[in-house]
C-alpha cells in the first residue's frame, strides 16, 4: 500500500489518497465514543477462519461478566467517573 490508505477523497477537484498518518490524525481528533466505534468497524472488517468462534467466545465472556456484576462479584465504577476520565 506504500504508506497510503485505499480510501480516495475528492479535494480541489482532484482525487488523492490519504496517508495512514493523515487518517490517524483525523481519527485521534474524534470524540472518544466515535473513536471506539471506528475501531470496532475496522476490526470487524477483518475476516479470518476463527472469526465466528472468537465472536462466540467474546459473547460468552460478556455474559459471564454480566452475571458476575449482577452477583456483586466485583467493584463497579460510576459511569460519570469513567466518562470524566475518558474525556480528559
UniProtKB/TrEMBL annotation:
Domain of life according to the entry: Bacteria
Record-given protein name: Putative addiction module component, TIGR02574 family
Organism name: Geotalea uraniireducens (strain Rf4) (Geobacter uraniireducens)
Amino acid at each position: 500500500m506504500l504508506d497510503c490508505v485505499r480510501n480516495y477523497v475528492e479535494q480541489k477537484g482532484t482525487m488523492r489518497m490519504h496517508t495512514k498518518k493523515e487518517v490517524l490524525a483525523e481519527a485521534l481528533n474524534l470524540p472518544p465514543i466515535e473513536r471506539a466505534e471506528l475501531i470496532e468497524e475496522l476490526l470487524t472488517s477483518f475476516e479470518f477462519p476463527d472469526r465466528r468462534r472468537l465472536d462466540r467466545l467474546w459473547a460468552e465472556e460478556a455474559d459471564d461478566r454480566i452475571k458476575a456484576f449482577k452477583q456483586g462479584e466485583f467493584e463497579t465504577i460510576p459511569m460519570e467517573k469513567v466518562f470524566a476520565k475518558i474525556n480528559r
